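Email to the structure team, subject: Large ribosomal subunit protein bL17 model.

Hi all, the expression group asked for a predicted structure before they design truncation constructs. Nothing fancy, just the tokens so they can compare against earlier work. One-line instruction: predict Large ribosomal subunit protein bL17, return tokens.
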Amino acid sequence: MAYRKLGRDSSARKALFRSILTSFFEHGRIETTEAKAKEIRGLADQLITLAKRGDLAARRQAIASLMDEEVVRKLFGEIAAKYSDRQGGYTRIMKLGTRRGDAAPMVVIELV
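Reply from the structure team: attached below.
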């Protein structure tokens, strides 16, 4: 299997990723489970690479992937400029320990 299903069908998984990515770019770092963070990492890197292109088609693709146009403006304005000279590897995952309720491994994913 090439990806984690996370106990959801495809539409719920897509909505979850859109929500997490929007929060991630809005705040710069989020706390989530390790499995979700590992799935989000590649999608976030793809969106930053898209933002580095900076053209209208790239902006429309980003708007389709994220839930908030203000976050897209931040992605194309601040975040893309910050990583203009970097070739990938825009995110970092740091382990925190386990969640108290179900012992799920928790991590912080943040922009480098």
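DSSP finds four helices and three strands in the chain. Helices lie at 10-27, 34-53, 56-65, 69-82. Ping us if the truncation boundaries need rechecking.
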